[in-house]
Amino acid sequence: MTLSLEHSVDTKKALPTKKKSKRSPKARQEERAFWIFILPWLIGLICFTGGPIVASLFLSFTDYNIVSSPVWVGLGNYINLFTDFLVMKSLAATAYYALLAVPFTIILGLLLAILLNQKVKGQAFFRTAFYAPSIIAGVSVAFLWSWLLNPDFGVVNSLLKQVFGIDGPNWFNSTHWVIPSMALMQLTAIGGTMVIFLASLQQLPKELYEAASLDGARGWAKFIHITVPLISPVILFNTIIAIISSFQVFTQAYVITQGGPDWHSYFYVYYLFDTAFSQYRMGYASALAWVLFIIIFALTMLSLWISRRLVYYEYDNK
Amino acid sequence: MTTQTKKNYVHGEYSLFRKIIVYVLLILGLAFFLLPVIWMLSTSLKTLPESQAFPPKWIPSFQWHNFVDVFKEVNFGRFTWNSIWYTIVTVVSTTFFSAFAAFGFARLRARGRTVLFGIVLSTMMLPPQVTMIPQYLIFNKLGLVDSYWPLIIPTIGGSAFTIFLLRQFYMGIPKELDEAVKIDGGGYFTIFFRILLPLSMPGLATAAIMEFMYRWNDLIGPLIYLSSPEKYPLALGLANFTAAFAQTPWNLLMAASIIAILPPLILFFFAQKYFIRGIVISGTKG
Known about the structure:
Strand content of chain A: under 5%
Helix content of chain A: 55-70%
Largest sheet of chain A: 2 strands, antiparallel
Number of domains of chain A: 2
Oligomer: heterodimer
Helix content of chain B: over 70%
CATH superfamily of the largest domain in chain B: MetI-like
Structural class of chain A: mainly alpha
CATH class of the largest domain in chain B: Mainly Alpha
Distance between the termini of chain B: 31 Å
Largest interface: A-B, 101 and 108 residues
CATH class of the largest domain in chain A: Mainly Alpha
Structural class of chain B: mainly alpha
Shape of chain A: globular
Shape of chain B: globular
Order of helices and strands of chain A: HHEEHHHHHHHHHHHHH
CATH superfamily of the largest domain in chain A: MetI-like
Distance between the termini of chain A: 39 Å
CATH architecture of the largest domain in chain B: Orthogonal Bundle
CATH architecture of the largest domain in chain A: Orthogonal Bundle
Number of strands of chain B: 0
CATH topology of the largest domain in chain A: MetI-like fold
Strand content of chain B: under 5%
């Protein structure tokens, strides 16, 4: 605060009379203020993002166990990744999870948004009630599902037995069902996706639907030819976000299964976490982190590339 | 469910048939979303044998003392307090520093501003796992592991998403207000504290709520840095809850989970529109 940020009142000085200084004192003062305001962010960027990125890249080419100094191993870590059984296992688990969780979240999220967009009595109540479970997140939601899907005492298997007379699967305890169970947990988190779709549906121009109705378009045709193209940028956005977050899945596996049974829910970030913070193999863990970054980046680019032909951007309401 | 939802469009008008289908689907959906939560509440009020009964009982015997037992059996009061102060400190700090930077990016002209703002946006895309390890090594060198400092200090840089969100807000506030302050002899700090901060309260509330949800639920941050059980926040304490028991006490575990979700839930009911706004902004502008 002691720095002079007060606005210059001397207008004569502010006039660009001298040729050598192109910027007026007023502009320079504004520029100085800019740097002061962004300084905390800049410090954070250098110390906690930029610096660590460089350090992480360097470490990924070394062996480092915190106690002794890093030993340069060149591409050793990256080569070892390809023959590491747990890398393959954890990547397979993560990819399988993403393959189930992403379409589940997008399709169900969109269908629920359409349902909540219908003009009915109690619309606000239904919207709140459908969204509210998304508030439960993290460890609590993991325990909730672990209890709902408990093979012995869980309410889901009890209902399956009572109502349909079938023996439910072992869910989280089964190598076949553990990943589908984790994808099913997204049911509680779907509110966010649903709200984004709902907001985009509310912004659609009614005239287009009226015109289509006059031309004799039926409901399904309107959905496919008007709704889907118009909200396709939102579908793309939600898909990318869902892909990114599925590749970072960790909490539910840590809390419910500890990666089991038989490594079937040992997700990539879980392996990265163990490598870094249980085994203190910081070099190898850094290489794992960079591979994760490359995978996420590649999948994002792939989604954007695929969507080039599919996403419709002409209608812009901003 | 799929085909029926789509069929709604077949009847362009709001026919009775269509209305019935919509209501049936809404009530089915309601059951799907609310029954797990009701089941959670029901279990939390049962005795342990009661919670394992077959067929399951929906109406519990109302063991309200379960909620007290949670605090007696495990150091749950401590966890709750840790979570409360840690969340408040990080939310206030992140929001304030984000607002500070957002003001610079929205209001002050300077060379390199566009490039720097591009960096803000690009840091949003970086997976936190890349910076996690070097950050740990820094705080380990500084001897700050097993304290909250490694989780608090980085908030000085704000959050990229919040900077982005608040910048949008500030750009919508008329610049004439700044001029008025300048005429009265006020500087940029006056403009920021007296004009923009008060006028951007809805934006700050939205940003703070999103940060609150992240901090309250985050497991991996505290898991990496905190090793003494008395320092655990709720997320970590809850994750280790079962360690104190030979057999999983599902009734107590559900009671503990409910305690952990109570603050976010209360906040949601009081500030619902800010929750929704935050999600919508992140979805349509992000």
